[in-house]
Structures
1.
Amino acid sequence: MAKNLLIVESPAKAKTIEKFLGKDFQVKSCFGHIRDLEKAGMGIDIEHQFKPRYVVSDGKEKVVRELKSLAGKSEEVWLATDEDREGEAISWHLCEVLGLNPETTKRIVFHEITKPAIRAAVETPRKLDMNLVNAQQARRVLDRIVGFELSPVLWRKISVKNNLSAGRVQSVAVRLIAEREREINAFETQSSFKLEAVFSSTDTGGRQINFKAEGKRYNDSQSAEQFLQSCIGANYTVSDIQVKPGKRTPAAPFTTSTLQQEASRKLGYSVSKTMLVAQQLYENGHITYMRTDSVNLSDTALGDITNTVKGMYGENYHQFRRYKNKNQSAQEAHEAIRPTYMNNTTVENPEWKRLYELIWKRTMASQMADAQLEKTVASIDISTNKEQLTASGEVIKFEGFLKVYREDKDEEDINEDESNEGMLPPLQVKQNLPLVQMTATERFTRASPRYTEASLVKNWKNWALEDHLPMLQRFPPLLKENT
């Protein structure tokens, strides 16, 4: 019998960690939460400071019996559940059920499942963090209160059987979706006519190429037609050229929410699939812990990324960066989501491969040089009227981080003018430009698009953290008044 019993949440994680710790440790899984609020009533004593009433969860009796038996035979019990609020609460529940003293039971946490990280955690155990435990309990109690109070209202308003439930998170999400739908329904489409001209010029190789230029928009077809008529037989001359340097900067490494958003945009993954695959990558030692709101990277990780960037792309592609959270409540001691070993550019498992490579590329890009751009804006005079056309283009002079990774945008964040910019041929002031064609195309304004899973995650987070915190604090009395 091993001297030490170490308890984790996941059986997959248990097998990996046991290999690192050797024969003195037996690693067992509690399979997640072992206790929850009792189902009879609300499970909360509202009259006495909202005291929760816990019972062993259905189906966990056998797990509890086994852990009690093993704990009784071990010299020491170690708690190694996840490092977030939920993990801390699971450790506390284990203390309560197994009869362990929270003040003396050794609690360890780690950001990645690698031998050095596990060994370092065992060498520096800590006590249970009751602040995190109480934070989780408060959230669980709020979940239950909101569900018990709102769900009956939902049943009364919607004529279906009582199989719908409302909660702290999904109720806000439904509100955001409903508000966006009302906005779409109330939107009044307006039209305008976009003027676009196509000119011909030669590139650096002497080849004839076409490029676009734009004029002002007209509100009605008559004005647009008059302008087109005025341009018949006109000469077009470059009157001014402005060349400005520019740059693009890489995004920070992934947090939980940004990983969910980007996996939705790039891979078409649902939030649940993203988290399932990320959990498997973490438990098998490929990435750091996947539930985090921090963009921080450890010094060890920064050194590893630096060596990988320089080794794969050269010194000039590297740029050291430290990222900080705008949200002051983010836990800076935690790390962003990153690969545990940067020299592993991919994984063999085909179900994990795409998400892992996305994480690897984003992590690499975060420590790479800015992309250097050159933006050219050419003004074109029309001989038959006073209007001007404008041609603009962007040239990448140095790829920098774009060699590895480009961040996608949600539909609502895409600027039409930016998305239409292309490359321009070399132009000179007073150069005459042959016109290929000129059109005025009717365009219609569009309402904001319906949410994708990615944009809903983004907007829910903004709503919760920034816009409605005062209302959330006033929610219980408002709920009582409105039911």
2.
Amino acid sequence: MRLILVAAAILTDPAERVLMAQRPPGKSLAGLWEFPGGKVEPGEAPEAALVRELGEELGITVAAADLAPFTFASHAYPDFHLLMPCWRIAYWQGEPHGREGQALRWVAIDALATLPMPPADLPIVTALKACTTIARP
């Protein structure tokens, strides 16, 4: 089975809400909400991929030093296995906006479970809920 490595961000604002992105029409799992990020290219470090993807998809600049490792998800889809390391990010430059047609929404941690999400994202929600608060790095 093919392995796909995807780096994901848990961007948090001062109110401890999490930025979620909706997969745009025409992509697999369109309409579902996910943590921003993207595929790691061959030879690319996951942290570098995440910094790159956040610039490309959200128009923000993130310093690698501001990535705080949080958790990871591992999920077997029918035709591939997804491995997704996740970092918390509380500091960045710029205002996040969907540069690839995706809707964005700031969501309280307790409300994350109300969003339809890809199965691979669900363990991240569980891990966030297990934290009494998200300490800002």
